[in-house]
UniProtKB/TrEMBL annotation:
Main localization (coarse): membrane
Cited PROSITE patterns: CYTOCHROME_P450 (PS00086)
UniProt-listed Pfam families: p450
Chain residues that bind heme: 420
Protein name per UniProt: Uncharacterized protein
Cofactor(s) the protein needs: heme
Record keywords, A-Z: Heme, Iron, Membrane, Metal-binding, Monooxygenase, Oxidoreductase, Signal, Transmembrane, Transmembrane helix
Organism: Vicia faba
Entry keyword annotation includes Oxidoreductase: yes
The keyword Oxidoreductase appears for this protein: yes
Lineage of the species this protein comes from: Eukaryota, Viridiplantae, Streptophyta, Embryophyta, Tracheophyta
Length: 473
C-alpha cells in the first residue's frame, strides 16, 4: 500500500510542477520563442531585406494580437506597437525599463554608449552630448557644414550625367561627421576610417554568433579598428588641449574632453569613444537616407519640387556669390523642412527599437518578465489612417501645425527624455544639402521606386538618377 501511495505521489510531482509553471506563465504574451539563439531573427531580417517587414509585423498581430512573444538576436523578446506602445517606452524610467540594444549593437558600439545607459549615467552622458549638439552650439558650425556640402557637390556631382545618390550621400555625411565631430580634415587620417566604418555598420542587426566569415565577426573586427583610431584622436586632442589650450568647441571630442566637474572629467575615455561611435553611426546613416529619399520624392512629385525650389531660390537671391548659409537662412526653410518631416513619416530610417525590462512589468494585460527584450515598431502610427488621413498620400501640409498631431504618434527621432540629441544636427546637414542640390540641379530617376531595409531603407540601385545642371542667376 505504501509503495502504491509513493508511486502515485511521484506521478503527481511533475503534474503539480506543470500546473504551477502554467499558472506562473499564464499571463506571458502569446507566441513562440522559436529555435534557441536564432528564434525569429532570420525571418525578420529576411522581411526587412525584401521590404515586407510591415507585413511580417501585421501577420504576427493577426495571429497573436497586439502583443506577442518571440526571440530576436538571441534574447526572449516581446513585440509591441502603436501610440500606447510608444508612450509606454518613452515615459517609463530606468526603474522598470532600461536602455539596452541587441547584443550585436552593444558589442559593436560598446557598452558605454548612450543607448545602453540608464538613470544618472544616461543623464550625465546625454547632457555632455547635448552641450555640443544643441542649437546654440550648432549655429557656429553651419558655415563648416556649408563648406563640406559645396566641396562634395563640386567633386562628385558637377559635370556628371548619371550618379547613384545613396553612396554619395553616405560619403557626404561621413565627411561632415569626421570634420565636425572629430576635427578631421580631408586626407589620410579621415580616409583610414571609411573602410572599417562601412564594415562595422553592416553587422549592426545580426545574429551574435562570432564565427569567421559572418557579418557579426567582420563588424566586431571593424569596431575594434575604429576604437583604436578614435583612441589615437582622443590622446592627440588631449595633448593639444594641455599644451595649447585648444578651443573646446572646435569639435565634439574636444568639447567632451574639456568638460570637467569638481576637478574630474565628466566622461571617461571609454565613454567618449563609445559615444563618438554612436553619433558617428546615427549621423551617417539616418541623414544620408533621409536626404536620399527626399531626392527620390522630389523626382516623383514635380509640384513639391517646384515649391521647394522656389523657397530655396528666394534664400539664394539674398546671398552674395559664394557666401555660406547661416542659421537664419535655415530658419526660413519652413516648407522644405515640412517635406523632410513627411518623408520621415513615409520612410522612417529606423524600423524599430529595443529596450530591456528591469523588473516584471505589466503591459496590455500580460506580464513581460524581468530581463526580457522589448521590440517596439516605431512607425506603425505613421501609417495609421486614424492619425494621418490617406497615409499613402505624400502631403507636407500635415506638418504645418505639429501640435495637431497626437503625442507619441510621429516618432522618427524618438520621444520624451529619450528624444535623439542629434535632432538639430540632422536638420542642419539635411537642409544645407537640399538647398545646394535643388538650386544647382534637376534630375529624373533611372531606377524604380523599390527599396529594401538592411536594416535601414536602401533604394534600388542606390537611387540611380540622370542629372541636369540648372542655370544659376
Amino acid at each position: 500500500m505504501t509503495s502504491v501511495l509513493l508511486f502515485a505521489l511521484l506521478l503527481l510531482i511533475p503534474v503539480i510542477f506543470l500546473l504551477r509553471r502554467t499558472k506562473s506563465s499564464k499571463r506571458v504574451p502569446p507566441g513562440s520563442l522559436g529555435i534557441p539563439i536564432i528564434g525569429q531573427s532570420l525571418g525578420l531580417l529576411h522581411a526587412m531585406r525584401s521590404n515586407t517587414a510591415e507585413k511580417w509585423v501585421q501577420d504576427r498581430i493577426n495571429k497573436y494580437g497586439p502583443i506577442s512573444k518571440l526571440s530576436l538576436f538571441g534574447t526572449p523578446t516581446v513585440l509591441i506597437h502603436g501610440q500606447a506602445a510608444n508612450k509606454f517606452i518613452f515615459t517609463n524610467g530606468g526603474d522598470t525599463i532600461v536602455n539596452q540594444q541587441t547584443q550585436s549593437i552593444k558589442k559593436i558600439l560598446g557598452d558605454r554608449n548612450l543607448m545602453e545607459l540608464s538613470g544618472k549615467d544616461h543623464s550625465r552622458v546625454r547632457g555632455a552630448l547635448v552641450s555640443f549638439l544643441k542649437p546654440e552650439s550648432l549655429k557656429q558650425y553651419v558655415g563648416k557644414i556649408d563648406e563640406e556640402v559645396k566641396q562634395h557637390i563640386q567633386m562628385h556631382w558637377e559635370g556628371k550625367q548619371q550618379l547613384k545618390v545613396l553612396p554619395l550621400m553616405k560619403t557626404l555625411t561621413f565627411n561632415i561627421i569626421c570634420s565636425l565631430l572629430f576635427g578631421l580634415e580631408g586626407g589620410k587620417q579621415r580616409d583610414q576610417f571609411m573602410k572599417p566604418f562601412q564594415a562595422m555598420i553592416q553587422g549592426m542587426w545580426s545574429i551574435p554568433v562570432n564565427a569567421p566569415f559572418t557579418r557579426y565577426n567582420r563588424s566586431l573586427k571593424a569596431s575594434a579598428r575604429i576604437q583604436n583610431l578614435l583612441k589615437e584622436i582622443v590622446h592627440q586632442k588631449k595633448d593639444e588641449h594641455e599644451k595649447n589650450g585648444a578651443n573646446s568647441r572646435q569639435d565634439l571630442i574636444s568639447c567632451l574632453l574639456s568638460m570637467v566637474e569638481d576637478g574630474k572629467q565628466v566622461l571617461t575615455e571609454k565613454e567618449i569613444i563609445h559615444n563618438a561611435m554612436l553619433v558617428m553611426v546615427a549621423g551617417h546613416d539616418t541623414s544620408s537616407i533621409v536626404i536620399t529619399f527626399v531626392i527620390r520624392l522630389l523626382a516623383n512629385e514635380p509640384t513639391i519640387y517646384a515649391a521647394v525650389l522656389q523657397e530655396q531660390e528666394e534664400i539664394a537671391k539674398g546671398k552674395l556669390l559664394g557666401e555660406p548659409l547661416t542659421w537664419e537662412d535655415l530658419s526660413k526653410m519652413k516648407y522644405t523642412w515640412r517635406v523632410v518631416m513627411e518623408t520621415l513619416r513615409r520612410f522612417p530610417p529606423v524600423f524599430g527599437g529595443f529596450r530591456k525590462t528591469a523588473t516584471d512589468i505589466e503591459y496590455g494585460g500580460y506580464i513581460i518578465p524581468k530581463g526580457w527584450q522589448i521590440f517596439w515598431v516605431t512607425s506603425t502610427t505613421h501609417m495609421d489612417s486614424n492619425i494621418f488621413p490617406e497615409p499613402l498620400k505624400f502631403d507636407p501640409s500635415r506638418f504645418e501645425n505639429q501640435a495637431s498631431t497626437p503625442p507619441y504618434c510621429f516618432v522618427p527621432f524618438g520621444g520624451g527624455a529619450r528624444i535623439c540629441p542629434g535632432y538639430e544636427f540632422a536638420r542642419v546637414e539635411t537642409l544645407v544639402a537640399i538647398h545646394y542640390l535643388v538650386t544647382k540641379f534637376s534630375w529624373k530617376l533611372l531606377s524604380d521606386n523599390s527599396f529594401s531595409r538592411d536594416p535601414m531603407p536602401t533604394p534600388s540601385q542606390g537611387l540611380l538618377i540622370e542629372l541636369c545642371p540648372r542655370e544659376i542667376s
